[in-house]
Design brief:
single chain; about 260 residues; mainly alpha; 2 domains; about 70% helix; elongated; Rhomboid_protease_S54; membrane; peptidase activity; EC 3.4.21.-
Length: about 260
């Protein structure tokens, strides 16, 4: 099985797994430098648009991305060649990071508007709305505080405490890191579906065959649903996945259009 690995795919696997082992067991501080942070965070560095691809949250996160590369990457490399498969992986990964950063900036702007609205008109209803929009950042005890604030809406101590809570949540949101090669992997998935649409793949769960184009269509629709649904308790960067699909599709479309260079 491993003898069928192509050079670029094998090197990407070795580098990514190696970085994970080093960061997980020997140098956990690497995450502070390699993970991708909000562009206005004090932890942000431009190099993170590249390095975040080689960091993963845990072993399962690493396995799922590398397994996808292991399954779909070799055939793509044989067909496209080493330069194009590496270009696909890197462009989709970096591009996903860039687009996700724009999406994060948009969401941060929404949060800043909500905070400004509260500051200009501090009241329990505005605070409750903010809590409901960002439930993952508050402990259950916050609703006891809201009840107390409801009963004393003019209490300056409670107002200041509410403001402190809002700014604390903003700080946490600004410093939530994104890691993983999922954006790059989704670019590989869409490329495989576009180039080998009728290839039969056998799923493990449920155990059944499915054509590549239908599998990727399912992943695409599921990703779009999660982006629209925008569950605040979901810590998966679905927009980065969608970005990888879009960039990968555009890249393969361009290569197929330029047939004199593609074949």
């Amino acid at each position: 099985m491993f003898r069928n690995l192509t050079p670029v795919v094998k090197n990407l696997l070795l580098i990514t797994v190696g970085v994970y082992v080093i960061s997980a067991f020997f140098m956990p501080q690497l995450k502070a430098f390699f993970a991708l942070y909000y562009v206005h965070s004090s932890r942000f560095m431009p190099t993170q648009f590249l390095t975040y691809m080689f960091m993963h949250a845990d072993g399962w996160h690493l396995f799922s991305n590398m397994f996808g590369l292991f399954i779909f990457g070799p055939l793509l490399e044989q067909f496209l060649g080493p330069k194009k498969i590496l270009t696909l992986w890197m462009v989709c990964g970096v591009g996903s990071g860039l687009l996700y950063s724009g999406y994060t900036a948009y969401r941060m702007n929404q949060m800043d508007n909500s905070i400004s609205q509260f500051y200009s008109n501090p009241n329990p209803d505005n605070f409750r709305e903010f809590v409901n929009d960002n439930p993952g950042f508050f402990k259950s005890g916050v609703y006891d505080f809201i009840d107390a604030y409801d009963r004393n809406p003019e209490n300056q101590t409670l107002i200041q405490r509410a403001k402190d809570n809002l700014m604390s949540v903003r700080e946490m949101q600004a410093n939530v890191p994104m890691v993983g090669a999922s954006g790059a992997l989704f670019g590989v998935l869409i490329a495989f579906a576009m180039l080998f649409p009728n290839t039969q793949l056998f799923l493990l769960f449920p155990p059944m065959p499915v054509k590549a184009k239908y599998l990727v269509l399912f992943y695409g629709l599921y990703t779009i649903y999660n982006v629209i649904n925008n569950n605040p308790l979901d810590n998966v960067a679905h927009f980065a996945h969608l970005s990888g699909l879009i960039i990968g599709a555009a890249l393969v479309w361009y290569w197929k259009k330029d047939r004199s260079n593609f074949y």
